[in-house]
Amino acid sequence: MSIELFNESGAEAPEDLIIEIARFAMGRMDVHPAAELSIQLVDLDTMAELHMQWMDLPGPTDVMSFPMDELTPGGRPDADEPGPSMLGDIVICPQFAADQAAQQRHSYQHELAVLTTHGVLHLLGFDHAEPEEEREMFGLQNQIIADWYDARDQRSRAQRQDAKDARLLRNLGFDSGPSSTSRES
Fold it and tell me: CATH class for domain 2-71+83-157?
């Protein structure tokens, strides 16, 4: 998956985290591995302009999604294999996200993960205009984020275990690095 992120917001944002959760959400939703996604981080004024232009609503918002190609998760087993395509654009306002995170008493990073996942789901056609749609979309969003946190925790535990194993091998006299030499008997 090709994901491009452009930070035009003037705010610090964990770009690697945003790309990571976008990639995870797209993978979880079975989006074609060659699909492309663009993520833009914008300031409050730019987001307010986009919000008015596209939604006819005043003031900034947290995230907006602009789908490009008709992609759906999964697909039919008898359908032709879809080729790579442009999923669309997600626009996030970090300043709005930071305020929202403070109000909801969770981290800025978590809020950006939520907004990114929310944006990906909108690009795939999910919506929350009706109560049933809202339950489905937010349930799926929460499950993707929980799974992402679990995967990150597992990766972190594996890295810590690998570091412990490497220290143990060094202490036992084994060099696990690429510069080790072989011994002849």
Answer: alpha beta
